[in-house]
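Summary for the steering committee. The consortium agreed at its last meeting that each partner would contribute one worked example illustrating the joint modelling workflow. Our contribution is presented below. We chose a case with several input lines so that the handling of multiple components could be demonstrated. No manual editing was applied between input and output; the record is shown as generated.
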Amino acid sequence: MSDSQEDFDTAPDHFLELKSHHGIFHGLKFYFADDVNKDFYKSIVTKLGGTVLDDPPKDVQSGQYIVSHVNTFEMPTVDPLFLSNSAEQNTLLNIAPFILPPVNENAAYDVEVPDADSSIDSRITKASEKQEREAQAQAEAEARGRHHDVASAAIAAAAASLGHSEDEREGKKDDHGLRRHVMDAGVRLEQGESPVSDVNERNVSADATGAVAIGEPSKTVLSRSSNLPPHNKSSFTEEEDEFILDVVRKNPTRRTTHTLFDEISHYVPNHTGNSIRHRYRVYLSKRLNYVYKVDENGKLLRDEKGEFIKTDVLPQGLKRKFTAEEDYQLAINIKTQFYKDIYQSDPTTGESLIRDDDEPSTVAKRKMVMDPTFIPGKEPSFQEYTVGDRRGPLSREFFKTYGEKYPKHTENAWRDRFRKFLLNYGIDEYIAYYENERANNRIPEPMKNMTNRVKRPGPAPGNYNNAKKVKFMSPTGQQPTSASTNQYTIPQDDLLDEETLSFITGLKRDLSRMESHQNAAPDVPFEYTQELAESIRNNFAMEETQFDTINPDEIPFPPPIATTDLFMPEFFHFASTREFLNKVHDIVNRTYHTSQAEKLVEDLRDECGIRKAFSTSILTALSGDLMVLPRYFLCAFRYSANPPMNVPGIWTKEDDEMLKNGSEEDMKLLVKKHGTGRIEMRKRFHQNDLV
DNA sequence: GCGCACACCCACACACCAC
DNA sequence: GGTGGTGTGTGGGTGTGCG
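What follows is the complete predicted structure of the assembly.
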């Protein structure tokens, strides 16, 4: 008996009573539009009392659905997950969340959903009293007995989505396998499990690797919320609150950001980033009590036992406000620089800065900045000198040095403060204001309200609602940014962080959706994904001998294909292709905190010299399968092709077109190249607009 | 009627790019 | 290489209306 069956059989009576004598699909008809795993789904439907239609329904009828990953029929179309999840739980789930919108947005039809009263979720949804909900949630948790808790639920879903066997999730296989697969699914990994998230011994997969998926959504949370429309208001449960606090504690430097809570929202499907952030700010921040120590880069630190270190000292956020003292010091320093430039005299010592042996370049620069009417010895004192309208020139070197001397703000930030605030306020004016306030024993304020920029089009920044996000990874790569003008040969050039975030959080969204649908037994993936897992794993194993055994030592370094628009200067510091690939392997096998998605891309940039746009585009081509990343470079370098053609697991634009067209001949070719498992994954990418 | 979930706002810190 | 333009998300909120 499988774990899922065991779990189900230990469920309380109110679950069991939902089983239908006729089979849960009794009275429902399904037409299967996709070939992938068609027989499997057909057998589920038949076995559980449903009817399989040979032809697509010609009109909308109650209890009649097309089963597909995409709604191209403009008829009620349901995701296959509905079948597998319902079968998994032997319960007719609420079909509404599984209904796919038509590709043609103008298509209009009414969808009559079957009586959802028989679904666990609707029962929970209708339980209005909090006490009842909590009691039911607890009953669920207890019913699952040996449940793997939140962490393994997320891992299970991640593994399920990209294909991971039960054995591997149970830690019976190598830990690399797990990490790879979880990362494959685009889920960011933590550096380790939380000592406070009650990860139990059963979480072998998490413990073995020290890697726990960020998701960690409480099983109770997921089950209760799984079938609710996302726009519904719903209360935060204790489990959700604890999950939010736990993530914040592991991301203390991001506790005030919007993106952290947006990322959390992908694992708490019933709430938006806006609401979770508000929940934290207004209610939960009071309960934070401690966070985990992080280094200067925001990475979690561990003690000698390998556990996270609690601290009640909150680290700095990502941005720091300028203080009045900083503004004043900046004004004084710039005034000093201008004084030196104009009079070529040190304001404190009065010594001339002009030397007989000055380099010609120094002399030339001096002529550009100094006052031509100035008579040496006649310069005013520093106090008497006023900057007036002078705005520059001020060398970049000035801000570079200033940023190094005062690292509380970056070089760019200091320069921007000068440009946007000090120049607008007036250097002399701010110095006078500051000194006057001090002289009168008042506390001067920093400059403010000096920015006057045109309001940007679209939603205001800091708004993370349920609205459809901007599609960053369009096939055309068209973006209303300067990216369209640069020289990159790959389509997605700019908005790098956003792309990365969009890419990975998009996957996470997909995952969380699947997780939320596995409410009764989230630690056991549905059969479909096990097949998918098996398929991808088998393919990969077979391909290894053909595609991963190219000797990197035979590839000259740097390879001709490695151009500066794809690689940073750091890349060219590698001594050999092997050394570069070793580093890629190193990163691929590394674990990351789940909220550090962009960290992966940043590490690839910082340690391998791969530009973020390039690595993002590669990850897209790989459908997020990190295992194939070394293969990508190996083949690209070996065959001087980007992307390398005819390599399994690497999707080219042509492949995607063929998949979209879906002709029998094209599909045969794709199956031959990528295998059915990867095709299934790619379809999900298409579904989620990630290609 | 009210608490809370969720939407929305915006100044600005920091960044990057084109000229 | 100095400068202006502007993209982007943080930080710290407030507004709105559902349950």
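Residues 128, 232-235, 254, 256-259, 281, 317-319, 321, 391-397, 419, 453-454, 456, 461-462, 481-482, 494-495, 497-498 of chain A lie near DNA strand C (CB under 10 Å from a C1'). The longest strand of chain A covers residues 29-32.
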